[in-house]
Design a protein that fits this description.
CATH architecture of the largest domain: 3-Layer(aba) Sandwich
Helix content: 40-55%
Number of domains: 2
CATH superfamily of the largest domain: Response regulator
Radius of gyration: 21 Å
Number of helices: 9
Strand order of the largest sheet: 2-1-3-4-5
Order of helices and strands: HEHEHEHEHEHEEEEHEHHEE
Structural class: alpha/beta
Distance between the termini: 33 Å
Number of strands: 12
Strand content: 15-25%
CATH topology of the largest domain: Rossmann fold
CATH class of the largest domain: Alpha Beta
Length: 237
């Protein structure tokens, strides 16, 4: 039985791209999905979906197999070439063994047979959210917003598949903020914990913060006036 309170909590910060060529079905399902997710983007073809995907970087895709031009599985295959973490749900009006075999190979979250009714869709979304969370825990990934992810184990910052080079102090500073996620960090703590015995002015700290913002996005570190800094809150981006 679905726990709607838990489901809202799991989905509230996730973004979804819905690919369906029937405008009436797409409108109805999108309106339903918007109750649960942070945002729902729409596309009517694989080509349109790829453009939207590259621009919006969703966490979950809901894709109809029977699309004009490239079908939904061909679209999923294209996305999977460079994006292994995104969760993909496919829907179709037919049960086809060949499609099912392809679905397994593409590591799809779920294969739904139309009509896509509320309960089955919500179960698939919950499974997607759970898989997404496990990937981040297993790989020690930290979501920094706007497509930026820091791999704490490999000490590697990426935006999608592009690696962002950090200097030693920039990396130390970012890791310190991650370790103190959501906490306001006073200037004196930064001076003591990051620069240790070296005397650092507030201007020097601001300079390092600016460098991180330039390499990522302006909202990554929030300035708390006259107190210090705090790592961004995802829901406010």
């Amino acid at each position: 039985m679905l726990n709607h309170h838990s489901l809202f909590d799991k989905l509230k910060n996730l973004h979804l791209l819905y690919v369906e060529d029937d405008p009436q079905v797409r409108s109805q399902i999108s309106e339903f999905l918007e109750r649960y997710l942070a945002s729902v983007q729409e596309a009517s073809s694989a080509e349109e979906a790829i453009v939207c995907f590259n621009k919006k970087k969703p966490d979950i895709m809901l894709v109809d197999i029977n699309l004009p031009g490239k079908n939904g599985l061909e679209l999923a295959e294209k996305i999977r070439e460079n994006h292994h973490d995104i969760r993909i749900i496919v829907s179709t009006a037919y049960t086809d063994k060949e499609f099912l075999l392809q679905a397994v190979e593409l590591n799809l979250t779920r294969y739904l047979v139309k009509p896509v009714i509320g309960k089955k869709l919500l179960e698939a979304l919950e499974k997607s959210a759970d898989e997404y969370a496990k990937i981040y825990v297993r790989e020690k990934l930290f979501d920094l917003g706007k497509g930026y992810v820091y791999n704490q184990e490999k000490k590697r910052l990426t935006q999608d598949t592009k690696e962002i080079t950090l200097r030693r102090k920039e990396m130390q500073l970012l890791e310190y903020f991650i370790a103190n996620d959501a906490q306001i960090i006073p200037y004196r703590s930064l001076e003591h914990d990051i620069w240790e015995d070296t005397v650092m002015s507030r201007d020097a700290i601001r300079s390092q913060i600016r460098n991180l913002r330039k390499k990522t996005h302006p909202n990554i570190i929030e300035n708390i006036n006259a107190i210090g800094y705090r790592l961004y809150k995802k829901e406010t981006l």
